[in-house]
Amino acid sequence: MSLKFPNLLFLALPIRVNENQQKPFRKFLHSLPEGPLKEAFQGPRVCHLTIGMIPVKCEDDLNKVLQFMEDKRDVILKQYPQSPITISLRGTDYFGSEEQHSRVLFAVPVESEISTGNLKPFCEFVRQLFVDGGIIRDTSHELNLHCTLLNVRHMRKFGYKEKSFDATQLLRRFSLDSWTWTSNTTLDELSIMKTGAIGPKHDMFYMEIATVLLHPKD
User: What global pTM score does this model have?
Assistant: First the structure.
């Protein structure tokens, strides 16, 4: 696999949004004003829940990560709940000092009734497993599972990077009570991906380095 070093990977649960589920995302895109906000929207194919970041400085680091993923496959599968983890993506929330100075706008993962309470414990178990293996390094923040829609890192105005954006109207229009992005989506894959989405405008995706299929127990 061709990868430039140093590089930054991340461990995540991909959220597969099929063609029939893309209508809410298209409506969101069309609601965005021309400019930095619209330019920053990468599309539904980048949807995922990040578990942790994985820095790799050289090919040996990458090989160590891939071998660890393979070696721990059975441990991960054993921890995955018998009933598949199923979520809906609802509404919006934000990271930032206040709505008018948001850094990230994200959709909120809400577990279905059948799997309620399984998502975060499973993700915390996997993160700790990779921390103990020396793969994930930075765990200074509590695990806050979210699906990013807009990130200020992808916004520029007059050639300069924006520091924040006003999410007030988006939070009102696409609220937790009134807006659903996807329903009953099964999270049955654990992937290591490369940071930096690629692909067509508003239809971008992350390159997957390795994936474990999380089949339910018999």
Answer: 0.95
